[in-house]
Amino acid sequence: MIYLDYNATTPLDPEVEKSIKDALSVWGNPSSKYPAGCTAKALIAEARKRIGQCINALEEEIIFTSGGTESNNWVIHSSIDYFNSCKAVGDNNNCNIKPHVITTSVEHDSILGPLNYLKRKGDIELTIVNIDEQTRNILPSDIAVAIKSNTVLISVMMANNETGTVLPVQEIGKAIKKKEQELGCKIFFHTDAAQAIGKIAVDAKQLNVDFLTIVGHKFYGPRNGALYIKHLESEKNLYTPLLLGGGQENGWRSGTENTPMIVGLGVAAQLIHKNLEKYQQNMLDTRNYLKLKLAEAFGKGVVFNYLPEVCLPNTCNFSILGDGLEGYKILEKAKGFCCSTGSACHSDKCEPSKILLNFHINPAVAGNALRISTGRTTSKKEIDDVVAELVEIRQSLCNDCS
Ligand SMILES: Cc1ncc(COP(=O)(O)O)c(C=O)c1O
To answer: Which of 218, 315, 317 should be mutated for ligand 1, with most atoms under 8 A from CB?
Structure first.
């Protein structure tokens, strides 16, 4: 089976796997003061340093979590708690009004899910900014005009998991800073970098974000993650822990640390710090080769649902046009490869992905979409085999295709 679904998850890099196996023997509790605990604590400190280096952050700005979903939920919880504790405006009258959150219509469910839930409960005001139809991206000015005096959090992903679109996070950050100064209140800025790390350079300082979500299994690391939280000397009470308990992670995230997985995450981050350009090159070469081969094989019968100039190097979302060529039907037939579709299927009914529709992809086209995401070891031979199989599948499924 040729694996071409690296945006869904990645295998462990062999170096990461080895580091995890080695760390399994370091089973001491990192909070213990005797040698077994101290060894584990030192390994965790090293991993924190490596992750910091990978995204240009200080060690103390990296807090380990169980993964992206936890990190994203934590950002929301912490920001709303800050607003509700009325720290937002000195003596403020704001205590009577709800916190306002801004996000985009193409975020992962671990952002849109909790925000929609809080809105339904009546706990927050929510503005969901749509993708601009012309540029097929978020416009920083659309975010800026949505900011109000009670805006406490703006969450914009770095790159979208389905189309690979890279969102203008740095520009949005600048627009937010300007508004923040005008309004004189704190607006937290978060980016979910789950899909960006390991594929493009991620620099927390340059992005000027308060929070940044890190997800290990998207960059050949284990199934845990971290949250970057900007260190602010002057403002110590800005953040609230999600999990309370034994006070691990400097009180920010309680729970005995998962030493082996943290070590693995550190090694995965170190590999990116050393080899990002090499990894990027292979993803880009094979993704571009795929695009070429699909165009050669299907001509006008294939459309590409991504914009190469603002796309991750590894992602190719495309639709083979014709009746009976829905993405999920193609994948049912595929024997030699696996990738993702542009449909969400529940029991026996499949709908085009809401995210693709929100990117203004025509519903008929979105229903036929396939997402191929290449990885560090994807080869051109694999791409040739996949395209050859797609040609066969199209012939067997499509009644009205010549
Ligand atoms: C953009 C994005 N954010 C967050 C997540 C959530 O990560 P996890 O399911 O590992 O918690 C994912 C995973 O698919 C993702 O693609």
So the answer is: 218
| Residue scoring higher pLDDT (237 or 19) | 19
- The answer to whether residue 345 is catalytic is yes
pLDDT tens, position by position, 374-385: 999 999 999 999
**Residue after which a domain boundary falls, among 217, 238, 272:** 272
| CATH number of the domain that residue 305 is part of | 3.90.1150.10
Residue 365: domain span = 2-6+276-397
- 38, 338, 345, 350: the active-site residue: 345
**Mean pLDDT of the region 276-301:** 98
Tell me the pLDDT tens digit for each residue of 352-393: 999 999 999 999 999 999 999 999 999 999 999 999 999 999
Pocket test for ligand 1, best of 6, 66, 69 (most atoms within 8 A of CB): 69
249: left (phi over 0), alpha (psi -120 to 50) or beta: left
Distance of alpha carbon 268 from the chain centroid: 16
Query: Token pair 């979500």 is at which residue?
Result: 213
CA distance 261 to 299: 46
Residues 6 or more apart from 326 whose CB is under 8 A from it? 341, 343, 350, 367, 368
Are residues 281 and 214 part of one domain? no
Query: Residue 347 pLDDT more than 70?
Result: no
